Amino acid sequence: MDLDFDVEYSIPAARGAKAESGKGKVRLNEETLTLSPGRGAAVLFSWRDIESIKAADYKAAVSAFSGDKIELSALGYKYEDFLRMASGFRNEQLIKDSLLNEPLKVSQIEARYARSSPQSEGQCELRVYETALLVLPEQDELIRLPFRDIKDVREGELSVTVEFESGETLEFSRLGNKLDYFQTNLSDAMDRITAMGAEFIKTIVPGTSGLALRKLAQTLKEGRLMPLAEIETLCPGFIKGLEAAVCADAENKKEYEFLKSLSRKEKVRFGFKKSLAGGLAGDYLLFLFPVYCADAKKSGNAVIMEAFPMGLADKPAADGAGKRATYFFRLAGRKDYALSKSVPELDKMMDVFGRFFNAAMGAVNFRRTPLFLSEAKLLEPKYAVYRAAAARIPELRALRDLYIGRVIHTDLENWRENIGNLLDFNVRAADDSAKWLKSQIDDEAVPEEGWTLPQSCATHGHNSADSVEQ
């Protein structure tokens, strides 16, 4: 659907071109904002190109990442319609480019928000997803609030205040007759995720109940990886129960025990993640196995990420696009690691990495494809959404820098051999940017690792579903 607005425009001088102003038309649709002057060529921006839309005094300033700017005015009574539609189209693109797609529970809740840090306020739309609350401001950047980061929700007489673990707050007001509707749906969505965690914990340690179960479920939240040793302190017997569940499948048992044998066991981290596709089929258990020791010449300086299906049944197929993979990241710079740190120093570095990993994976909603695609693959048109995500999300860029490679699950012996080869390569390599070559070859053969491209790519003739990889 195209929406047209009569405007007056001005374009400041830039790149050797003269300043320009006059009357024209602006057309908005799902893909672009196009300014058509009364005379001359049209100026077209895709929503992905636009860095910001700032409004004041009935004027809208559109700025692109390229540095190009246009100012629109004389919109008359259509000024607010223009802002609402332009911000709406841009926010939808931001949701895709920020890899935030997941099952939507409630949308189209209009409100006013006030954020404590960084301070901002204005009109917004609220959406409740399966694992997060999304705030879509009319002018500022969208705000995603994973339920795991929410400490408290306080209900006022005419407002709702959300407090985060960081101490930051967001207050929502002017919800009108949707105040109770929003409160109820946000509470229900958060309760479902907490209940999911509690049910999982009970399957691992059946005797856990009451206050102990509640305390652990409020700590070991969906999408948060914690040190297993810390979980064991909160719930004695958890590690034994978890290992029994994982190792109930013979193939999982061999894989788990091999990775555990390589790792610094005291620093292994664990968490569980809800499928982005909805339902139970894609829920999975996620481990971080740190590999290091005081001897820098031995295989190490790595953190291994491995996932097992939460149901531990219906394992993904081991061929074609359904292949699973084991992922590897650097713990430290290779030259720095070669200076041979002590184990306590490396333990502290692992603590820092674990916190960073939670933030980085949360920023990409635990999607893995944007981690392993090479720079060359990112330039392909069908991966534009991942290229945009890498440009927009600093945590993703940082995690891509630490990424070493991945090992595809084939037969057990080949998988083990390739892990050994990758770890040896990581110690021998001196350049932090060096990636394991075989991983790049596998990326060409299995580009999507069992899950399909986001819907923003589907509009260009590619896969239409958006589900989590196994």
Describe the structure.
The protein is an alpha+beta fold. The protein folds into three domains: 91 residues, PH-domain like; 91 residues, Pleckstrin-homology domain (PH domain)/Phosphotyrosine-binding domain (PTB) (PH-domain like), CATH 2.30.29.30; 236 residues, no CATH class. Helix content is 35%, strand content 28%. The chain contains 15 helices and 20 strands. A seven-stranded antiparallel beta sheet has the order 4-3-2-1-7-6-5, covered by helices on one side. A seven-stranded antiparallel beta sheet has the order 11-10-9-8-14-13-12, sandwiched between helices. The protein has a six-stranded antiparallel beta sheet with strand order 15-16-17-18-19-20. β6 and β7 form a beta hairpin. It starts with a strand and ends in a 12-residue tail after the last helix.
